[in-house]
Amino acid sequence: MQYRQLGQTELKISELSYGTWAIGGSWGKTNDEESLRALDVAIDQGVNFFDTADVYGDGHSEELLAQAIKGKEDQIYIASKFCRAGDIFSKDTYSKEQVKTYVENSLKRLQRERLDLYQIHCPPIEILKDGQVFKVLDELQAEGKIRHYGVSVESVKEGLLCLEQPNVAALQVIFNLLRQKPLETLLPEAKKKGVGIIARVPLASGLLTGKFTKEHTFEAGDHRHFNKDGEAFNVGETFGGLEFKTGVDLVEEIAWISEGRESLSNAALRWILDQDEVTTVIPGFKTVDQVKRNLEALNVPAFSEAELNKVNEFYQNRVHEHIRGSY
């Protein structure tokens, strides 16, 4: 495992880390015992950073993390998120009193006294333009509730707006082979300003595992069913904004990247890791096997310049026009 500095913070985090949305819920059936075993394997293999949120299983993923890292709290960095447990369009959701309540509830579930990274969870752009929430986070940082703060964004425009705030330490962005727009301006600007990049939805909600056919159906409680067209939240969070069947076709076209890299998912994660501006990539997981398979990406060959150019041309010529939503 290699470790990368998170922006200008003192945190050195594993270049491949894990997101915990799936073990909290909204990805079909879960098994807590298997989730805890998977977390143990990740930690044993050097993963020292986990991303969660208060709405993942109504706090359940935070509770699972607390169990998994008991006795190892000083070795593991935790990032959580807030605002989506309330009305994301109301300024009251971002008041000092409310945000303090959110962070204290997360700390209680995580059994911690301070969060390493606290992120605004995909707020409307009007909230980012208003900017008051950043002053609230500055105050919570001064009080010792959080070490650093950042923003999880849906679009490049939102990300660039956040970079205008001097104390934003990290941006969490949707970034994968099928969602390359951040490469154009956002990632270079973040690097220039010393802001860390956390790449989420790295496998496009499973599309980039190559395991799906067009006939595949998802469980009713899986966001890949109930949010497939953006019915519940931003469509970009599901399949990176692609219509499912279109995504399956596109993945077949890009499958050549797996040659010499064991699997398509390995290659997809390796491609993200090969981007210099990325601090860490956070695939999700529900099983021990998924954790182990994702970690294999660390050992496969990097992309050559010719391959990188070919992947970029594929995105520009075949993928870009099919992405839905604001990105």
TrEMBL record:
Residues 15-315 form the NADP-dependent oxidoreductase domain. Pfam families: Aldo_ket_red. It comes from the Bacteria. Gene3D superfamilies: NADP-dependent oxidoreductase domain (3.20.20.100). This is Aryl-alcohol dehydrogenase-like predicted oxidoreductase. It comes from Shouchella xiaoxiensis.
